[in-house]
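Our consortium's second objective concerns turning raw sequence data into structural hypotheses that experimental partners can test. To show how far this objective has progressed, the report includes one record in full. It was chosen at random from the queue rather than selected for favorable results. The single chain below, 119 residues long, was entered without modification.
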Amino acid sequence: MKRIYRLTRSVDFKRVRAVGSSYAHPQMVVLVAQNDQTHSRYGVVAGQGVGHAVQRNRAKRRIRAAIHALYPQIEIGWDVIVVARSGIREVCFWEIRDVLESLLRRAGLLKDATDNRSE
């Protein structure tokens, strides 16, 4: 994911946590807040509850891949933080993608969607 599409500064993370809305699932939590930019930005977080460093990094890579797959459908002008939970370790990529899609749909951030799976 290109740098302009990533949340990198702690002040941005704090703003999204303070003023944003959250949508929860046993595998992840999505926090969203509007930004004043012409694109959406994303941050992925995995705490120690997810596991040791290898498990946390794997969870973050899989979430980033799911965001990348859904990116064309996501509305512009939003900051999105995805927080991995411990349940994410037991699921496959497609389940992560489906959960992320349902959370973004609940948040109202998905455009009229088509199935992006290539089989």
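The partners drew two points from this record. The chain has a mean pLDDT of 90. Strands lie at 21-24, 28-34, 41-46, 78-84. Both points have been shared with the crystallography group to help prioritize constructs.
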